[in-house]
């Protein structure tokens, strides 16, 4: 199943930028490893924002939930990370469905 994940990363006033960058570097290593393994299909960083977009391919929603719990950034500062999750449908499958519905 494909999912789009939008991560928004905040941090509290006690964390300095270097601390945030250290956690983010660890997260980047894990994310790029998952991309190399094929779980993450693609990643983008939104310019000028602490926001990352990912397309991931996992078997079940349970797997995605487990993966999210295990991410370095979630373990170290999860209370400051918002994740918006959207399930995706291949457009080709949608187009076939639309054409079939026109025949009714």
Number of helices in the DSSP assignment: 4
Q: Quick one: how many beta strands? A: 4
Q: How would you describe the shape?
A: elongated
Give me the Rg, rounded: 17 Å
SS content category: alpha+beta
Low-pLDDT runs of 5+ residues are none
Average pLDDT level? 95
The termini sit apart by 28 Å
Domain NERD: 44-104
InterPro entries: Dimeric_a/b-barrel, MLI_dom, NERD
Pfam families: MIase
Protein name: Muconolactone D-isomerase
Please characterize this protein's 3D structure.
This is Muconolactone D-isomerase. Keywords: Isomerase. It comes from Epibacterium ulvae. Pfam families: MIase. The protein has 104 residues and is α+β, with helices and mostly antiparallel strands. It has a single domain (2-102), classed as Dimeric alpha+beta barrel (Alpha-Beta Plaits, 2-Layer Sandwich). The protein is built from four helices and four strands, in the order βαββααβα. The chain has helices at 17-37, 61-70, 72-77, 91-102, and strands at residues 2-9, 40-45, 51-57, 81-88. Strands 2-3-1-4 form a four-stranded antiparallel β-sheet. A hairpin with a 5-residue loop joins strand 2 (40-45) and strand 3 (51-57).
Summed up, what is this model?
The protein is an alpha+beta fold. It contains 4 helices and 4 strands, in the order βαββααβα. The two termini are 28 Å apart.
